[in-house]
């Protein structure tokens, strides 16, 4: 992909909070295509980068729309719960995502969006995930690098999407 993350369409939706933070899976319709919200990880962002702006859109997002799991230890007692995501929590997420992208040789993704991947032109999202998994299993290393994972992802994406 040439260009950058700014080339991906920003889609206005009536309820961005529900689309960005609602329980999954979340899909949206745009220009006659169905898009699936993808996870907030470097792996999913690599899929989006490989698919390119012709197959991925973004929607505004705010950290405070999300919750995070929490764990508290007091002596031998352990409690868990949920709390609203803070800017510091979002910093940790962004550092992880952008660290993976950097290791894969890709640019950092911008903050403040949730990303949606169009259904493949041939096959389905399930067929895409399966093909990526097959490609990743073929990597000789037991712990593939981000670059190796990106190559496996790119190969699968190019089989199911028309990528320019």
Give structural notes:
It is a single chain. With 164 residues, the protein is of the alpha+beta class. The chain is 37% helix and 23% strand. The chain has five helices and seven strands, in the order βαββαβββαβαα. The longest helix has 17 residues. It is globular. The mean pLDDT is 93.
Radius of gyration: 17 Å
- Major β-sheet, in short? 5 strands, mixed
Distance between the termini: 7 Å
**Secondary structure tally: strands:** 7
Overall structural class, as computed from helix and strand content, comes to alpha+beta
Helicity, in percent? Answer: 25-40%
Enumerate the strands of the largest sheet in spatial order, edge to edge or round the barrel. Answer: 1-4-7-3-2
**How many alpha or pi helices?**
5
Mean pLDDT, as a whole number? 93
**Beta-strand percentage range:** 15-25%
What count of structural domains?
1
- Report the uncertain regions: none
User: Order of helices and strands, N to C?
Assistant: EHEEHEEEHEHH
Task: Specify the overall morphology.
Answer: globular
Structure summarized in a few sentences:
This protein is α+β, with helices and mostly antiparallel strands and 164 residues long. Helices cover 37% and strands 23% of the residues. The longest helix has 17 residues.
Write the layout of secondary structure elements.
Blueprint (H helix, E strand, L loop, with lengths): L8 E2 L5 H6 L5 E4 L2 E5 L4 H10 L4 E5 L6 E8 L2 E8 L2 H17 L9 E6 L6 H13 L8 H15 L4
Parallel strand pairs: 1-4
Antiparallel strand pairs: 2-3, 3-7, 4-7, 5-6
Helix pairs in contact: 2-3, 2-5, 4-5
InterPro entries: DUF5956 (IPR046000)
Pfam families: DUF5956 (PF19381)
């Amino acid at each position: 992909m040439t260009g950058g993350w700014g080339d991906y369409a920003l889609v206005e939706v009536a309820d961005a909070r529900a689309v960005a933070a609602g329980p999954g899976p979340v899909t949206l319709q745009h220009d006659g295509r169905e898009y699936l919200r993808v996870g907030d990880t470097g792996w999913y962002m690599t899929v989006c980068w490989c698919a390119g702006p012709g197959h991925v859109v973004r929607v505004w997002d705010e950290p405070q729309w999300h919750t995070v799991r929490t764990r508290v230890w007091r002596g031998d007692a352990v409690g868990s719960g949920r709390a609203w995501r803070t800017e510091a929590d979002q910093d940790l997420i962004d550092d992880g995502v952008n660290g993976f992208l950097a290791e894969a040789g890709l640019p950092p993704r911008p903050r403040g969006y949730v990303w949606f991947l169009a259904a493949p032109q041939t096959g389905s999202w399930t067929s895409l995930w399966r093909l990526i998994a097959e490609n990743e299993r073929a990597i000789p290393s037991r712990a593939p690098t981000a670059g190796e994972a990106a190559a496996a992802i790119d190969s699968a994406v190019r089989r199911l999407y028309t990528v320019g």
